[in-house]
Amino acid sequence: MSTKQKPSDVAGISELITAVPRNESGGCAACGARTQSICAALSSGDLPAMSAIRSDVRFAPGQSVFFEGDPADSLFSVKLGVVKLFKLLADGRTQITGFLFPGDFVGLALLNKYTYSVEAVTAVELCKFPRVEFEALLLRFPELEHRLLVNASNEIAAAQDQMLLLGRKTAQERLATFLLMMRKRAASPTQANTVILPMSRQDIGDFLGLTIETVSRTVTRLRKSGAIELPDPNRVIIRDEAMLTDLSGIEDL
Amino acid sequence: MSTKQKPSDVAGISELITAVPRNESGGCAACGARTQSICAALSSGDLPAMSAIRSDVRFAPGQSVFFEGDPADSLFSVKLGVVKLFKLLADGRTQITGFLFPGDFVGLALLNKYTYSVEAVTAVELCKFPRVEFEALLLRFPELEHRLLVNASNEIAAAQDQMLLLGRKTAQERLATFLLMMRKRAASPTQANTVILPMSRQDIGDFLGLTIETVSRTVTRLRKSGAIELPDPNRVIIRDEAMLTDLSGIEDL
DNA sequence: CGATTGCTTGACTGGGTTCAAGGCCAGTGG
DNA sequence: CCACTGGCCTTGAACCCAGTCAAGCAATCG
Questions:
Q1: Do B78 and B129 form a contact (C-beta atoms < 8 A)?
Q2: Cβ of B166 and A209 within 8 Å?
Q3: Which residues contact B135 (CB under 8 A, 6 or more apart)?
Q4: End-to-end C-alpha distance for chain B, whole angstroms
Q5: pLDDT tens track for A170-210
Q6: Structure confidence by residue, pLDDT tens digits, B219-236
Q7: Per-residue CB contacts under 7 A with strand C, chain A residues 118-177
């Protein structure tokens, strides 16, 4: 969408980003996201084959990684930062289908074109693989393909949860679910109950199928009810987890 | 959900069901769904290995195949009929995450429990694989795993489309999208513009994140606008495809 | 036939959207 | 140093689309 830059360091964001060590040298073995990413499927002896076809790419907040409809000739693994996946309607209505964090993989496409867009939410560093070479790698290493299948299964389960949220949950239930979800991905490294929200209210609305105003009002309501605290707009402290869990409609985490 | 039986032959349903030849003998080679199902990944020489672990199961409309939370010890391929996948909230609100038709695969689970429920919409015949044996097959035939990955990718793309629908589309856009979607899966074998809807209004509502009343009203509105015709509640004739496509917000089919 | 089930239609309500200010903070420039 | 500006978030008021509640209707079945 917009290519405007956000404030270079919204409170807490750098904390989140630096939670994963940077990969200065560029080698896979030194990559901070290695243990969580698809590369973890390969033994250290097989890593060089993957390392040989990869390259690093960086994006500033708001920059586009690719657009829906672009030729799908690359795949990416998130090393650092947060990106969003989204789809658009002709009149601009946006649905964010997911936020990706370090270790997450993106770009798997069957067709020759991407079916969604990807944009940097924070400053990000991605590991880029050319599609043709990557597919050759898949043939060579079945364990890599297995890992992708596991990934895809998780993604499907998450998508089904999100469909339940979008189709049937109230605004308050959506926010409660979202905050609990984010705590698992973006808890402050120092305080487990503090969730850092690297994305804007607009992004949260576009993810939850709400308007920015409803997001704001609902967060305020959760704050007034004592469930959460808001040191600043991008930082949420979960005060009453039981209340959030009740509201979220989640059975088991 | 309910285990009540629907009318044994809602108009047009038998037409849809019998569109795929029945597999009386039980062998994979003779299976009507073979060319569309995951088994298509195997050469006819490798089929017996898969045939050896499979068995047929049948369900009447409304019967449950499995529930969310059940131990995930089987996988299924739809041979005949239609099943629905859904998730529930504590108070009974339901979100159907997909309808499966002959050739579709269901049951892939990473955890030991299913994360959603499956129920027969029409009379169905499923091909059942015990999980342990199936996983052994995956190790033996990488092309089978590849096929599952392709399947999963399609499912993810469909899920993202559905998130856009649930999060951002109006009731009319949802119905238009749904009818066009169903035409691709359940067009009458004899008339391409006639879509057979094997599921109830309640199911359609639970799939589109609407109430049964809104579904009914919106279908009526589409009928009055001339976009569709309704010979009976379970049969829709698409009269003005361009109008539906405009309404649906779909760019390219 | 009466009872049941599924679909449709009508009247009313309400949660979330829309429209419109207002507040807060960081960055900029006089 | 402070007024000005632009983003982003919050809050308020009015509106509206879809939900809720309640009949009514048609087809099926016992």
A1: no
A2: yes
A3: none
A4: 33
A5: 999 999 999 999 999 877 777 889 999 999 999 999 999 99
A6: 999 999 999 999 999 999
A7: 170-172
